[in-house]
User: Fold this.
Amino acid sequence: MLSLQVMKEASSDTFFWNESTREANNSVVKEFIFVGLCDSQELQIFLFTFFFIFYAGIVFGNLLIVVTVTYDSHLHSPMYFLLANLSFIDLCLSSVTAPKMIADFFSKHKVISVHGCFAQIFLLHFFGGSEMVILVDMAFDRYVAICKPLSYTTIMCSNVCVGIVATAWGIGFLHSVSQLTFAVNLPFCGPNKIDSFYCDLPRVIKLACADTYSLNIMVIANSGMLTVCSFVLLIISYGIILMTIQRRPSDRSSKALSTLTAHITVVLLFFGPCIFIYAWPFPIKSLDKFLAVFYSVVTPLLNPIIYTLRNTEMKTAMRRLRQWNLKSG
Assistant:
Protein backbone atom coordinates (compact mmCIF):
# COMPACT_ATOMS: atom_id res chain seq x y z
CA MET A 1 0.00 0.00 0.00
CA LEU A 2 2.82 2.37 0.89
CA SER A 3 4.63 1.71 -2.39
CA LEU A 4 1.37 2.21 -4.29
CA GLN A 5 0.85 5.58 -2.60
CA VAL A 6 4.41 6.62 -3.38
CA MET A 7 3.89 5.65 -7.02
CA LYS A 8 0.66 7.69 -7.14
CA GLU A 9 2.39 10.73 -5.65
CA ALA A 10 5.31 10.37 -8.07
CA SER A 11 2.89 9.99 -10.95
CA SER A 12 0.98 13.06 -9.78
CA ASP A 13 4.20 15.06 -9.47
CA THR A 14 5.27 13.91 -12.95
CA PHE A 15 1.87 14.90 -14.36
CA PHE A 16 2.03 18.40 -12.90
CA TRP A 17 5.66 18.78 -14.01
CA ASN A 18 4.76 17.75 -17.57
CA GLU A 19 1.80 20.12 -17.56
CA SER A 20 3.90 23.04 -16.33
CA THR A 21 6.60 22.23 -18.89
CA ARG A 22 4.01 22.09 -21.66
CA GLU A 23 2.58 25.44 -20.57
CA ALA A 24 6.06 26.98 -20.52
CA ASN A 25 6.89 25.59 -23.95
CA ASN A 26 3.58 26.76 -25.37
CA SER A 27 3.63 30.18 -23.72
CA VAL A 28 2.40 32.56 -26.37
CA VAL A 29 4.61 35.41 -27.53
CA LYS A 30 2.24 38.34 -27.92
CA GLU A 31 4.66 40.74 -29.59
CA PHE A 32 7.99 40.90 -31.37
CA ILE A 33 10.72 43.45 -30.69
CA PHE A 34 12.66 45.06 -33.53
CA VAL A 35 16.37 45.64 -33.03
CA GLY A 36 16.15 48.50 -35.55
CA LEU A 37 18.87 50.13 -37.62
CA CYS A 38 21.05 51.67 -34.92
CA ASP A 39 21.34 52.48 -31.20
CA SER A 40 22.76 56.02 -31.37
CA GLN A 41 20.16 58.67 -30.46
CA GLU A 42 21.83 61.33 -32.64
CA LEU A 43 21.96 58.99 -35.62
CA GLN A 44 18.31 58.02 -35.10
CA ILE A 45 17.27 61.69 -35.32
CA PHE A 46 19.21 62.02 -38.57
CA LEU A 47 17.68 58.82 -39.97
CA PHE A 48 14.20 59.96 -38.92
CA THR A 49 14.60 63.20 -40.90
CA PHE A 50 16.16 61.39 -43.86
CA PHE A 51 13.51 58.68 -44.14
CA PHE A 52 10.62 61.07 -43.41
CA ILE A 53 11.68 63.21 -46.40
CA PHE A 54 12.09 60.08 -48.52
CA TYR A 55 8.66 58.73 -47.59
CA ALA A 56 7.01 62.09 -48.24
CA GLY A 57 8.65 62.02 -51.69
CA ILE A 58 7.37 58.48 -52.27
CA VAL A 59 3.79 59.46 -51.43
CA PHE A 60 3.89 62.67 -53.48
CA GLY A 61 5.74 61.24 -56.50
CA ASN A 62 3.73 58.05 -56.89
CA LEU A 63 0.39 59.73 -56.23
CA LEU A 64 1.30 62.38 -58.80
CA ILE A 65 1.87 59.69 -61.43
CA VAL A 66 -1.40 57.91 -60.59
CA VAL A 67 -3.42 61.15 -60.68
CA THR A 68 -1.74 62.38 -63.88
CA VAL A 69 -2.35 59.12 -65.74
CA THR A 70 -5.94 58.95 -64.47
CA TYR A 71 -6.98 62.47 -65.40
CA ASP A 72 -4.96 63.13 -68.57
CA SER A 73 -6.63 61.54 -71.58
CA HIS A 74 -3.37 61.71 -73.56
CA LEU A 75 -1.93 59.07 -71.22
CA HIS A 76 -4.79 56.58 -71.53
CA SER A 77 -2.62 53.92 -73.14
CA PRO A 78 -1.44 50.46 -71.99
CA MET A 79 2.06 51.66 -71.07
CA TYR A 80 0.82 54.40 -68.75
CA PHE A 81 -1.95 52.22 -67.34
CA LEU A 82 0.74 49.74 -66.26
CA LEU A 83 2.93 52.59 -65.00
CA ALA A 84 0.08 53.89 -62.82
CA ASN A 85 -0.38 50.41 -61.34
CA LEU A 86 3.36 50.18 -60.66
CA SER A 87 3.31 53.54 -58.87
CA PHE A 88 0.30 52.51 -56.78
CA ILE A 89 2.03 49.25 -55.78
CA ASP A 90 5.24 51.14 -54.93
CA LEU A 91 3.25 53.45 -52.68
CA CYS A 92 1.54 50.52 -50.94
CA LEU A 93 4.74 48.48 -50.64
CA SER A 94 6.63 51.33 -49.00
CA SER A 95 3.71 52.15 -46.69
CA VAL A 96 3.82 48.63 -45.20
CA THR A 97 7.20 49.24 -43.51
CA ALA A 98 8.27 52.90 -43.79
CA PRO A 99 5.74 54.59 -41.42
CA LYS A 100 6.41 52.02 -38.68
CA MET A 101 10.17 52.35 -39.16
CA ILE A 102 9.99 56.16 -39.00
CA ALA A 103 7.82 56.12 -35.87
CA ASP A 104 10.14 53.63 -34.16
CA PHE A 105 13.07 56.04 -34.27
CA PHE A 106 11.47 57.78 -31.27
CA SER A 107 10.38 54.56 -29.54
CA LYS A 108 12.51 53.05 -26.81
CA HIS A 109 10.88 49.68 -27.35
CA LYS A 110 10.24 48.95 -31.02
CA VAL A 111 7.44 46.40 -30.77
CA ILE A 112 4.84 44.91 -33.07
CA SER A 113 2.09 42.44 -32.23
CA VAL A 114 2.27 38.91 -33.61
CA HIS A 115 -0.85 39.52 -35.71
CA GLY A 116 0.57 42.84 -36.92
CA CYS A 117 3.82 41.11 -37.80
CA PHE A 118 2.11 38.48 -39.94
CA ALA A 119 -0.09 41.14 -41.54
CA GLN A 120 3.09 43.03 -42.46
CA ILE A 121 4.61 39.86 -43.94
CA PHE A 122 1.46 39.15 -45.93
CA LEU A 123 1.26 42.67 -47.37
CA LEU A 124 5.00 42.78 -48.17
CA HIS A 125 4.86 39.57 -50.20
CA PHE A 126 1.49 40.52 -51.73
CA PHE A 127 2.67 43.88 -53.07
CA GLY A 128 6.21 42.65 -53.78
CA GLY A 129 4.98 39.65 -55.78
CA SER A 130 2.48 41.82 -57.65
CA GLU A 131 5.18 44.33 -58.55
CA MET A 132 7.41 41.62 -60.00
CA VAL A 133 4.64 40.50 -62.34
CA ILE A 134 3.71 44.10 -63.22
CA LEU A 135 7.32 44.68 -64.31
CA VAL A 136 7.08 41.56 -66.50
CA ASP A 137 3.82 42.95 -67.93
CA MET A 138 5.54 46.24 -68.72
CA ALA A 139 8.34 44.37 -70.49
CA PHE A 140 5.72 42.49 -72.53
CA ASP A 141 4.04 45.78 -73.42
CA ARG A 142 7.33 47.23 -74.67
CA TYR A 143 8.09 44.01 -76.57
CA VAL A 144 4.78 44.22 -78.46
CA ALA A 145 5.15 47.98 -79.05
CA ILE A 146 8.69 47.70 -80.47
CA CYS A 147 8.80 44.24 -82.05
CA LYS A 148 5.18 44.04 -83.30
CA PRO A 149 4.10 47.68 -83.74
CA LEU A 150 1.40 46.97 -86.34
CA SER A 151 -0.40 44.55 -84.00
CA TYR A 152 0.08 46.62 -80.84
CA THR A 153 -3.45 48.02 -80.54
CA THR A 154 -4.96 44.61 -81.26
CA ILE A 155 -2.80 42.69 -78.78
CA MET A 156 -2.73 45.30 -76.01
CA CYS A 157 -6.45 46.05 -75.98
CA SER A 158 -8.21 47.21 -72.81
CA ASN A 159 -9.39 43.71 -71.87
CA VAL A 160 -5.85 42.34 -72.14
CA CYS A 161 -4.46 45.20 -70.02
CA VAL A 162 -7.03 44.65 -67.28
CA GLY A 163 -6.44 40.90 -67.48
CA ILE A 164 -2.66 41.05 -67.08
CA VAL A 165 -2.92 43.53 -64.21
CA ALA A 166 -5.51 41.33 -62.49
CA THR A 167 -3.16 38.37 -63.03
CA ALA A 168 -0.33 40.32 -61.39
CA TRP A 169 -2.46 41.05 -58.31
CA GLY A 170 -3.67 37.44 -58.25
CA ILE A 171 -0.15 35.98 -58.42
CA GLY A 172 0.95 38.36 -55.65
CA PHE A 173 -1.96 37.19 -53.49
CA LEU A 174 -1.30 33.48 -54.11
CA HIS A 175 2.41 33.96 -53.44
CA SER A 176 1.70 35.71 -50.15
CA VAL A 177 -0.87 33.12 -49.03
CA SER A 178 1.48 30.25 -49.87
CA GLN A 179 4.22 31.89 -47.78
CA LEU A 180 2.01 32.16 -44.69
CA THR A 181 0.00 28.93 -44.93
CA PHE A 182 2.28 26.99 -42.61
CA ALA A 183 4.16 29.81 -40.88
CA VAL A 184 1.06 31.39 -39.33
CA ASN A 185 0.45 28.33 -37.11
CA LEU A 186 3.99 28.11 -35.75
CA PRO A 187 4.39 28.24 -31.94
CA PHE A 188 6.38 31.17 -30.53
CA CYS A 189 7.58 30.93 -26.93
CA GLY A 190 10.68 33.18 -27.03
CA PRO A 191 13.05 34.76 -27.82
CA ASN A 192 11.08 37.43 -29.62
CA LYS A 193 13.73 39.85 -30.97
CA ILE A 194 13.91 40.41 -34.75
CA ASP A 195 17.22 41.79 -35.98
CA SER A 196 15.60 44.14 -38.46
CA PHE A 197 13.18 47.09 -38.67
CA TYR A 198 10.30 45.08 -40.14
CA CYS A 199 8.94 41.53 -40.06
CA ASP A 200 10.89 39.45 -42.54
CA LEU A 201 9.49 35.92 -42.85
CA PRO A 202 12.81 33.98 -42.72
CA ARG A 203 13.86 35.88 -39.57
CA VAL A 204 10.46 35.36 -37.91
CA ILE A 205 10.47 31.62 -38.67
CA LYS A 206 13.80 31.24 -36.87
CA LEU A 207 12.12 32.41 -33.63
CA ALA A 208 9.58 29.58 -33.64
CA CYS A 209 9.74 26.86 -30.98
CA ALA A 210 9.79 24.10 -33.58
CA ASP A 211 11.97 22.53 -36.22
CA THR A 212 11.56 24.94 -39.14
CA TYR A 213 14.38 23.83 -41.42
CA SER A 214 12.13 22.40 -44.14
CA LEU A 215 9.70 25.33 -43.84
CA ASN A 216 12.54 27.83 -44.15
CA ILE A 217 13.77 26.06 -47.30
CA MET A 218 10.26 26.13 -48.75
CA VAL A 219 9.82 29.86 -48.02
CA ILE A 220 13.18 30.76 -49.58
CA ALA A 221 12.48 28.51 -52.58
CA ASN A 222 9.05 30.09 -53.08
CA SER A 223 10.34 33.67 -52.99
CA GLY A 224 13.49 32.77 -54.89
CA MET A 225 11.57 31.01 -57.65
CA LEU A 226 9.21 33.94 -58.23
CA THR A 227 12.08 36.44 -58.11
CA VAL A 228 14.50 34.54 -60.35
CA CYS A 229 11.84 33.43 -62.88
CA SER A 230 10.51 36.99 -63.22
CA PHE A 231 14.03 38.37 -63.57
CA VAL A 232 14.98 35.81 -66.23
CA LEU A 233 11.81 36.59 -68.21
CA LEU A 234 12.65 40.30 -68.03
CA ILE A 235 16.25 39.75 -69.18
CA ILE A 236 15.05 37.66 -72.15
CA SER A 237 12.37 40.21 -73.09
CA TYR A 238 14.66 43.21 -72.92
CA GLY A 239 17.40 41.31 -74.75
CA ILE A 240 15.04 40.66 -77.68
CA ILE A 241 13.88 44.29 -77.62
CA LEU A 242 17.44 45.62 -77.64
CA MET A 243 18.37 43.42 -80.62
CA THR A 244 15.28 44.69 -82.46
CA ILE A 245 16.18 48.32 -81.73
CA GLN A 246 19.74 47.86 -83.00
CA ARG A 247 18.43 46.84 -86.43
CA ARG A 248 16.38 50.02 -86.79
CA PRO A 249 17.48 53.50 -87.94
CA SER A 250 18.82 55.62 -85.09
CA ASP A 251 16.15 58.34 -85.41
CA ARG A 252 13.34 55.80 -84.96
CA SER A 253 14.95 53.92 -82.11
CA SER A 254 16.04 56.82 -79.88
CA LYS A 255 12.65 57.28 -78.19
CA ALA A 256 12.19 53.53 -77.73
CA LEU A 257 15.69 53.21 -76.29
CA SER A 258 15.08 56.05 -73.84
CA THR A 259 11.89 54.41 -72.56
CA LEU A 260 13.59 51.04 -72.42
CA THR A 261 16.52 52.43 -70.41
CA ALA A 262 14.10 53.72 -67.78
CA HIS A 263 12.40 50.30 -67.58
CA ILE A 264 15.70 48.40 -67.26
CA THR A 265 16.93 50.79 -64.55
CA VAL A 266 13.77 50.23 -62.50
CA VAL A 267 14.05 46.45 -62.94
CA LEU A 268 17.65 46.39 -61.72
CA LEU A 269 16.85 48.63 -58.73
CA PHE A 270 13.94 46.41 -57.70
CA PHE A 271 15.27 42.92 -58.41
CA GLY A 272 18.84 43.47 -57.23
CA PRO A 273 17.93 43.72 -53.51
CA CYS A 274 15.22 41.03 -53.83
CA ILE A 275 17.65 38.47 -55.24
CA PHE A 276 20.22 39.12 -52.51
CA ILE A 277 17.62 39.06 -49.71
CA TYR A 278 15.56 36.03 -50.77
CA ALA A 279 17.58 34.05 -53.33
CA TRP A 280 21.24 34.55 -52.36
CA PRO A 281 22.48 31.44 -50.47
CA PHE A 282 25.02 33.30 -48.28
CA PRO A 283 23.13 36.04 -46.39
CA ILE A 284 25.02 38.87 -44.65
CA LYS A 285 23.01 40.59 -41.89
CA SER A 286 24.41 44.11 -42.34
CA LEU A 287 24.03 43.90 -46.13
CA ASP A 288 20.50 42.51 -45.81
CA LYS A 289 19.50 45.49 -43.66
CA PHE A 290 20.92 47.97 -46.15
CA LEU A 291 19.21 46.21 -49.07
CA ALA A 292 15.93 46.04 -47.15
CA VAL A 293 16.04 49.82 -46.64
CA PHE A 294 16.92 50.32 -50.30
CA TYR A 295 14.11 47.97 -51.39
CA SER A 296 11.39 49.46 -49.19
CA VAL A 297 12.27 53.19 -49.17
CA VAL A 298 14.78 54.17 -51.85
CA THR A 299 13.49 52.23 -54.87
CA PRO A 300 9.83 53.41 -54.54
CA LEU A 301 11.14 57.00 -54.61
CA LEU A 302 13.52 56.49 -57.54
CA ASN A 303 10.85 54.87 -59.74
CA PRO A 304 8.68 58.01 -60.19
CA ILE A 305 11.81 60.14 -60.60
CA ILE A 306 13.17 57.87 -63.35
CA TYR A 307 9.88 57.68 -65.22
CA THR A 308 9.09 61.39 -65.02
CA LEU A 309 12.57 62.76 -65.77
CA ARG A 310 13.13 60.47 -68.78
CA ASN A 311 9.61 60.70 -70.20
CA THR A 312 8.64 63.85 -72.09
CA GLU A 313 4.98 62.81 -72.30
CA MET A 314 4.75 62.50 -68.52
CA LYS A 315 6.41 65.89 -68.00
CA THR A 316 4.07 67.50 -70.53
CA ALA A 317 1.04 65.88 -68.90
CA MET A 318 2.12 67.12 -65.46
CA ARG A 319 2.45 70.65 -66.80
CA ARG A 320 -1.07 70.39 -68.23
CA LEU A 321 -2.34 69.12 -64.88
CA ARG A 322 -0.66 72.02 -63.09
CA GLN A 323 -2.11 74.59 -65.50
CA TRP A 324 -5.56 73.02 -65.11
CA ASN A 325 -5.29 73.25 -61.30
CA LEU A 326 -4.20 76.90 -61.53
CA LYS A 327 -7.13 77.76 -63.80
CA SER A 328 -9.66 75.89 -61.66
CA GLY A 329 -8.21 77.51 -58.51
Residues 52 and 186 are 34 Å apart (CA to CA).
